[in-house]
UniProtKB/TrEMBL annotation:
One example of a Gene Ontology biological process annotation: isoprenoid biosynthetic process
Signal peptide positions on this chain: none
Keywords on record: Magnesium, Metal-binding, Transferase
InterPro entries: Isoprenoid_synthase_dom_sf (IPR008949), Polyprenyl_synt (IPR000092), Polyprenyl_synt_CS (IPR033749)
Residue ranges crossing the lipid bilayer per the database entry: none
Pfam families (UniProt xref): polyprenyl_synt
Protein name: Type II geranylgeranyl diphosphate synthase GgpS
Molecular function, one GO term: prenyltransferase activity
Names of required cofactors: Mg(2+)
Assigned protein family: Belongs to the FPP/GGPP synthase family.
């Protein structure tokens, strides 16, 4: 997803192909580094239907692999050197630091986590690396005005996480893992009320994300808006399945 965001944004801005590939590779390497470390920290034993790296090769190897992916991301970014590369590297560090801060908040969350706080954490944890490919493309196109990108990505990240948690609600409750929808149930909402509340909130987040994305200069936010559309389509599909199940 992040590589596709980079490629689509870079093409809109008319960046050279080597730059497109460098930003896409850096963005995807960073994301995969975060997944390796996230699985290790959360104790998740599977990833996309396969054993998590730490579960198969051990925690020490997974930690080293995640660090290697993180370092490789910087190498990928500087492979297409331009006069703006230094600024791009600084912004990538900023995104990594913000992601780590969001992860710390997630790991520190307690069982009485509120619905609103869970959404804030989801946006803080995932938004920076969703925004990053678009921000890097803007910087390398010599456009400094990226103030709407982070808002669009943070809203998209929280909407996406709500949709994911709606899908994973039963499994997460059994496993005792953090789930945005479950926070409403823990606060006294019925399951159906919690689902409806979460879905409505996700749709509002995604709509606001699209609005912010469409204000990014030179139409560079359109790939973000398209991604928000795809997440909302998935939400609609879940509503259809729930209705079929109810009948």
């Amino acid at each position: 997803m992040r590589a596709r965001l980079a490629l689509d944004t870079a093409r809109i801005l008319g960046l050279p192909e080597a730059t497109n590939i460098a930003v896409a590779a850096a963005s995807e390497l960073l994301h995969n580094a975060s997944l390796v470390h996230d699985d290790l920290q959360d104790g998740d034993t599977t990833r996309r239907g396969q054993p998590a790296l730490w579960a198969r090769f051990g925690a020490a190897s997974a930690l080293c692999a995640g660090d290697l992916l993180l370092s490789a991301a910087y190498a990928a970014l500087v492979s297409a050197a331009t006069s703006r590369t230094g600024r791009a590297v600084a912004v990538m560090h900023e995104a990594v630091a913000a992601t780590i801060a969001g992860q710390v908040d997630d790991l520190s969350a307690t069982s009485d986590l509120s619905f609103e706080r869970a959404i804030d954490i989801a946006g803080a944890k995932s938004g920076p690396l969703i925004a990053l490919p678009v921000r890097l493309c803007l910087i390398l196109a010599e456009i400094e005005d990226d103030r709407h990108v982070m808002r669009a990505a943070t809203l998209l990240a929280s909407g996406y996480q709500i949709a994911d948690d709606l899908s994973d609600l039963e499994g997460d409750r059994l496993a005792g893992t953090t789930n945005i929808v479950a926070t409403s149930i823990n606060a006294g909402h019925s399951v159906s009320s919690a689902r409806a509340r979460a879905a409505a909130y996700a749709r509002a987040q995604l709509a606001a994300s699209r609005d912010a994305a469409r204000t990014v200069p030179r139409r560079a936010g359109l790939p973000l808006a398209a991604l928000a559309d795809r997440v909302e389509t998935g939400l609609a599909g879940m509503r259809v399945m729930e209705a079929d199940h109810a009948t």
